[in-house]
Amino acid sequence: MTFQTKTLNTIFIKPTVLAFGLIFSSQVWASAADDLKAKLALMNSFEAKFSQQVKDEQGELLQSGQGTIALAHPLKIRWEQASPDETLFVSDGKKTFYFDAFSEQVTIMNTNGLIDTTPFILLTTRESAQWEKYQISNIKQGYRITPKPGIDSQVEILDISFNKVQNLSAIKVTDLSGQVSSFTFKDSRVNGKLAGSLFSFKIPEGVVVDDQTQGE
């Protein structure tokens, strides 16, 4: 497993039980959640280039990279890492494909099965039942999302930042080990028409296929 595979697994794939108690005023949570929902409700689609930095819990740089992202409602994601490793995460809203070019392996998952594993999915869904699983608070230039106690998530903290014109500008993911992955967006486009092919994936010949949808 490459370093980049582990990083994307943290954001999207591998769930673990999260047990911690963060206390927020319900009034403050409601206000922050409503504000974030209102911003994201205006974003039916989003695409951008990103630069990435991954640091350990001591703040030491482990890796930097770049790639592209595309999001669309409902539950459509294309996250393509160009360097240092080529990886691709694609969801068409029903099935999700994760392709690691280095290991020549494709993992297939049901998208619904990923919803509880990461707060990142809130960027692509407006379902109240999903939002109720997370606590949301205001931070400088954005919002902090944390899973409520009992929600399985490898992500401990997700910070979402907006720029002066209220476009999505950065995401910072802190996992349970303390590793921090920061993504800064540039050349972003909001509510542009995205081709459906962006969210489809054709399995290359000769790769190992791990189909986790079988038997679900």
Would you mind describing this structure in some detail?
- The structure is a single chain.
- The chain is mainly beta.
- It has a single domain, classed as Lipoprotein localisation LolA/LolB/LppX (outer membrane lipoprotein receptor (LolB), chain A, Clam), CATH 2.50.20.10.
- The protein is 14% helix and 43% strand.
- The chain contains 3 helices and 12 strands.
- The chain has helices spanning 3-13, 26-41, 128-131, and strands at residues 45-55, 61-72, 76-83, 87-92, 95-100, 105-110, 134-139, 142-147, 155-162, 168-175, 180-190, 208-211.
- The chain has a 12-stranded mixed beta sheet.
- The protein is globular.
- Its main location: periplasm.
Q: What number of domains? A: 1
CATH topology (fold) name: outer membrane lipoprotein receptor (LolB), chain A
Distance between the termini: 25 Å
In CATH terms, the superfamily is Lipoprotein localisation LolA/LolB/LppX
Helix fraction by DSSP (H/I, runs of at least 4): 10-25%
Protein name: Outer-membrane lipoprotein carrier protein
GO biological process, one term: lipoprotein localization to outer membrane
Family: Belongs to the LolA family.
Subunit structure: Monomer.
